[in-house]
Amino acid sequence: MIVGIDDTDSRKGMCTTYLCAVLVDELKNYGEVSTPRLVRLNPCIPFKTRGNGAVSFEISIEKEEEVKEEVKARVRELSELNEEGTNPGVVFIGDRVLNTISVKDEERLKYFYETAVREVLTLEDAYAIITDLQLDYFGLKNKRGLIGALAAVSFFVLQRNKPDYYDCTYELIAYRKKDNRGKARVIDETSVWDADTATYPLTWDTVDAANNKIVFAPHSPCPVLFGIRGDSVDAIYKAYGLIHAEPEERKMLFITNQGTDFHLIPLDVATKEKMQDYHSYVLDGMVCSNPRTIEGGHVVFSISLSDSGTIECIAYEPTKGFRTIIRKLRVGDAVRVYGSQKNETLNLEKIDIMELNQVEEKNPRCDKCGRSMESAGRLQGYRCKRCGTYRADKAVVTVDRVLEKGLYEAPPVARRHLSKPLVRMFEANKKIHPSR
Ligand SMILES: [Zn+2]
Question: How far is the centre of ligand 1, averaged over its atoms, from the C-alpha of 378 (Å)?
C-alpha cells in the first residue's frame, strides 16, 4: 500500500516530513517500509505553506486497515489543526488497486503529479481521480492537502513502475529532540563547512560559499535540525558523519524531486499567449531593454520572445551576486531565462547567456578632420559641422564585453527547492558558472 500525506504543517511549527519520518519509523513494526518520497509542488501557488512539500511511502503489509488507522491517528495528533491554513489530506493506494492499475489510470496519475508541480489544481481534480480509481482517503478541515497527497502517491507509483522516468535527488533530514524545538539550533559551523568541502558537488546547497552562509538549517521553530541534499546517498551520509550538532531525535532519508527543475514548463510548450502567473517557464529571447536597478536593489530588464511579445525579467535583491551578472546584459544579447511568472514578470532563477551583442552603432567620425559628426535629421545621414563632410550611415564598432557566455544561477541562499543547481547541469558545449 502506498500512503501520501500533505498539508499537516504551518508556517510556525510542524513539518509534514517530520510526521512522515515518525510514521515510517513506527510502521516498520507492521511490515517493510520503503524510502519515503518528498515531492515539492508548484512553488508559486499563493496558498502554500512553507515549502509546499508532500510525502509518500510504501508499506508491504496484509492488514491495510490497521495501518490506515495508525496513519489517521498520527495525522490527527501531529497536524497543526489550529492554524487556519493547515488542511491535512491523506490518500491510500491499496495493493488491490496497485496490482490492477491500467495504463490509462497510470497516465492519469502521471498527469496529476506533473500538473501539481507545474500548474494549479483544484480539490475537485483530486476527488475526480480518487473516486474513479476507488482510492481510500482521509482529510481534516477543508481537506486541501488531498491535492498534494494524491500528487505524492502518483509520483511514487510512477517511480515504482519506471525507476528512471523522473530525475530525482536525495535529502537526509535530521529532526530535533522535542525539548530543543523553538530554541536556537546548536550546530558546529566549522564542521558544516568541512562536510561540504569533503562532499561537494555530490552534496549541494549545504552552504552558500559566495555569501558565506550556512543554508541547510531552517530558522523556524519546526522540528527540522538540518537537511543534507545531494545526488549520492554515500556522500550525504559521509557529510552527515562529519557534522557536529545537538543530539537529534531521528533522521530520515527522502528521495525527492528537489533540484530537478521539474516545475519549469519547457521551451516548446511555453508561448506568450498561454503564459500565466503562478507558472514557471524556460524562455528564449533577446534583451530589449538594458538592465536597471530599481528600489529595493532588484534588477529588471525585458526580453522580446522568439514567438511574439515581450516579458519583463527580474533578479530580486536576495539573489545577491547574481544581479552583478544581470546588470552586465545589453540590448541585443540572446538569452534563455528560467523562472516563475508573477505579476506578469519573470522571477529569474537561472539564465543562459547564449550570444553577446558586441556591436555598437555610433555617430561616425569625420574622415577629414576627425570630429564626431552629427545627425543631419531623421534618416538624413550625418554631417560634420566644421567641414561639411557628409556620410550616410552610422559607424559600427565592436565593443568588448566583460560578460562571459554560459549558464548562471541565483545562489543557494535564494534557491527554490525545485531549482536545479548548476552543478547538476551537464550540457554539451555549454560553460556553466556555478555560484561558487
Ligand atoms: Zn570634418
Answer: 20
Domain boundaries in the chain?
2-161, 169-256, 264-358+400-433, 359-398
Interval between CA 30 and ligand 1 midpoint (Å): 93
CATH tag, 2-161: 3.30.70.2200
pTM: 0.93
CA of 376 to the centre of ligand 1 (A): 14
Q: What is the rounded CA–CA span in Å between residue 290 and residue 58?
A: 52
Q: How confident is the model at residue 47 (pLDDT cuts 50, 70, 90)?
A: low
Q: Which of 111-120, 129-138, 264-273, 378-387 bottoms out in mean pLDDT, i.e. has the lowest?
A: 264-273
- How many angstroms does the Cα of residue 8 sit away from the middle of ligand 1? 77
Residue pair 233/204 in contact (Cβ under 8 Å)? The answer is: no
Q: Is the peptide bond before 36 cis (omega within 30 degrees of 0)?
A: no
Q: What is the pLDDT confidence band of residue 78, given thresholds at 50, 70 and 90?
A: confident
Using the CB atoms, write b or e for 12-40: b if 16+ within 10 Å. ebbbbbbbbbbbbeebeebeebeebbbbb
Give the single-character DSSP code of 281.
E
Taking the centre of ligand 1 as the mean of its atom positions, its distance from the CA of residue 357, in whole angstroms, is 30
Please, which pLDDT band fits residue 48 given cuts at 50, 70 and 90?
low
Q: Could you tell me if 85 and 10 are in contact, meaning their C-beta atoms sit under 8 angstroms apart?
A: yes
Which CATH number is 169-256 given? 3.90.600.20
**Does residue 337 have a pLDDT over 70?**
yes
Taking the centre of ligand 1 as the mean of its atom positions, its distance from the CA of residue 391, in whole angstroms, is 11
Question: For residues 247 and 27, what is the distance between their CA atoms, to the nearest angstrom?
Answer: 23
Per-residue pLDDT of 266-289, as tens digits, reads: 988 777 778 899 999 999 999 999
Rg (CA), the chain: 26
Residues sharing a CB contact under 8 Å with residue 39, sequence separation 6 or more, in sequence order: 53, 54, 55, 56, 113, 117, 148, 151, 152, 155, 256, 257
Contact 159, 169 (CB under 8 A): no
Task: Specify the fold of 264-358+400-433.
Answer: OB fold (Dihydrolipoamide Acetyltransferase, E2P) (2.40.50)
Question: Ligand 1 centre and the CA of 363: distance in Å?
Answer: 13
CA of 371 to the centre of ligand 1 (A): 6
